[in-house]
Amino acid sequence: MTTVRGKILDTDGETVPYAEVKFRDGAGTTLSNADGDFVLSGRTRSDFVQFGALGYNGIEMQIVRGIDQLVSIKLEYSSSDLGEIVVSGRRQRRYRDE
User: Fold this and answer.
1) Confidence class of residue 82 from pLDDT cuts 50, 70 and 90?
2) Is residue 48 within 8 Å of residue 60, measured between CB atoms?
């Protein structure tokens, strides 16, 4: 069993809440809490853990399988553009029986 625990911060030292943390082979996935803390455990064949969050560049970190590890992760802000966003709606008529 491999356990990786730690905290996810941004480059300004602020916590990154609800970031995704997962083993590369998909053996386990979790989210950081509101304070950026996480615990990821599982039986994995991978030597890598991936970290990512909306608005940040994802990173990958090498780990040692089979032991408990404490890590501190810093995510960099993403400078990618979302491009064009289209929002559409529709009207719905409601009829009342009188």
Assistant:
1) low
2) yes
